[in-house]
Amino acid sequence: MDLKNILVPFDSSSFANRAFKKALEIAEPNSSKITIVTVVTGIYQPSIGFSMKYSKELLEKHSMMLKKIFLKLETIAKEKGIKLSLKILFDPSVSKAILNYIDSSRFDLIVIGSHGRTGINRIILGSVANDIVQKVKCPVMVVK
Amino acid sequence: MTFSKILVPFDASAFSMKAFKTALDIAKNHKSEIYILTCLEKENLGAWYKDKRINKQIITDAKNYAKKILSKLENTGEEQGIPVSIQIKEVKSIATEIIEFSNSKKIQLIVIGAHGQTGFNRMILGSVSNKVSQLAKCPVLIVK
Q1: pTM of the complete model beyond 0.90
Q2: ipTM tops the 0.85 cut
Q3: Which are the contacts of B30, defined by CB distance < 8 A and separation ≥ 6?
Q4: Each residue's pLDDT expressed in tens, for chain A with a length of 144 residues
Q5: Which CATH superfamily is domain B5-143 in?
Q6: Residues 101-140 of A with CB under 8 A from B
Q7: Is A3 on the interface with B (CB under 8 A)?
């Protein structure tokens, strides 16, 4: 089994950072590509839930932030000679967006943190991680 | 932190064979040891109400059978220069035994098949792999 294409769903939480480090460890000997995917869910509005109608300013702020974080990751990856690419998705549902993206392009391995930004109960899995582990068709590595 | 100790819970199903192969691939790159753990469930054999000796007979038969298969795996590991140690245990709960074993041996990666001998619904996870992925303290790679 070749692990040439690795996907890391990233939300800049500590778990996501650990997942990224593990992905690097696997990528280094296999000389594989790593894709980092983040999902922008939009602003929560009580009347309609998460809305996808962005003000332009906010969207710019978001993507600036993401690019800054991505640059940091890229410098780490460059030291080890690993190619890194960023994909930003816009969807109110994080797990659905990631699952659709995985289906649309081929990945050999998905490395995901066991929790994201919300939950830190160390015993069970977070909702997004759980959803992806159950539904994805390629190997998944859960990092704790 | 590298993957120097890898645990593969093994039940001779197709998924666990796949898991063993991916574990070998990772072990080659990281020069790691592989632990193979087979758990035989003590209860739920179905013959306890007739004669307890039948139970013992079944367990010893199962142990011999497991030893045969595991020694094959040991050989394939040796051929590729990877130390493989095998472990057969009689337990009440498979998932808790896997987790306890991984904690006691300080395992750094568990490679497990998405399903075992019983379930074959490709969409969701099997019960054992689900429990292991939720409760284990180290990264868990789920092979599908």
Answers
A1: no
A2: no
A3: A25, A29, B2, B3, B4
A4: 678 899 999 988 888 999 999 999 999 888 899 999 998 877 666 666 666 565 677 778 888 888 899 999 999 999 999 999 999 888 888 889 999 999 998 899 999 998 876 655 555 678 888 889 888 888 999 998
A5: HUPs (3.40.50.620)
A6: 109, 123-125, 133-140
A7: yes
Which residues touch A106 (CB under 8 Å, ≥6 apart)? A5
Nearest CA-CA distance, residue A127 and chain B, Å: 11
Per-domain residue ranges for chain B?
5-143
Question: Looking at beta carbons, which residues of chain A come within 8 Å of B22?
Answer: 1, 139
Domain for residue A17, yes or no? yes
DSSP B120: -
- Its domain, for residue A89, covers 5-32+50-143
**Cα within 13 Å of Cα(B114), Cβ side:** 18
B103 contacts in A (CB within 8 Å)?
none
